[in-house]
């Protein structure tokens, strides 16, 4: 795994790095083979749109990356939302093929089109990618906008959408009587000892973006410890699609738990059959065999996800292997992120497992 460590360090070096800082954790079964932190958690004070570069902080004000640094994991939040949903399915308080309208009758468009819980979890509801909740005047207007969403494509056809997990959040909160943050804490992070994982604010987190129009959807300045995603921010930081902060160590624990059939030490968060349900193609919340970010780990049922901020996880049940790569790639500004380094990391891990 030495090449993996060197390559991750290289990603954080130079005037225009892939990301200012990164953490990688990888292992097989109960063995963690790689734990490495590289670069800086905080490097820039702002983004200069004229010079098209970050405004560097003085060295004494820059913050080194450590293995304990929390990251805004962005869409990796969807994985915990999916696990929370399958926990409700296991408890029989939620039916995977039940219609959303049976639980949320006020979501009339989804009810009219027969959208099910499975459609939400597999991104086959037909909903558009997102909606401008951040532009609403208040919570009532945001609720009304979300409830008004109707499929824009055929139900049953894959169309990745944050709205799926936002609707699923409302559904989970309705059937359980608890907020998503409580469901994640009580059902996942607390029993697994994931003490560095929570919805924000998270003051010690790696910095993300100097968030300003026109490149962003809101004017919020340099963000650190508050959620990057504008819709999650508008919703108070707790959202089904984004909002969690976590560490490499904690996400490795979650990976090891799921690879072990839902148990970690004395804790069990899902039965083995329900973990299998999560991972069965096309995956519930999890993407399956996506070589563009998994590299050579893809191909035999590997699952995982990416996050807009520069995060990713991959779990390969065939080899009992996991890879967590966290980066603050949107610091100081969002960009079209090149996922080849993610795929390269997956390939390094796959070849190490094979002995190549």
CATH class of the largest domain: Alpha Beta
**Unreliable segments of 5+ consecutive residues:** none
Count of domain modules? 2
Lateral strand order in the biggest sheet: 5-2-1-16-15-14-13
Order of helices and strands: HEEEEEEHHHHHHHEEEHEHEEHEHEEEH
Q: What is the beta-strand fraction?
A: 15-25%
**Main β-sheet, in a few words?**
7 strands, antiparallel
Count the strands?
16
Structural class: alpha+beta
CATH topological fold name of the largest domain: Beta-lactamase
The rounded Rg comes to 20 Å
Between the first and last Cα atoms, what is the distance in angstroms? Answer: 11 Å
Q: Report the CATH architecture of the largest domain.
A: 3-Layer(aba) Sandwich
SS summary, helix count: 13
Say which CATH homologous superfamily of the largest domain is assigned. Answer: DD-peptidase/beta-lactamase superfamily
The overall pLDDT, averaged over residues, is 97
Mass-distribution shape: globular
Q: How much helical structure, as a percent, in the residues? A: 25-40%
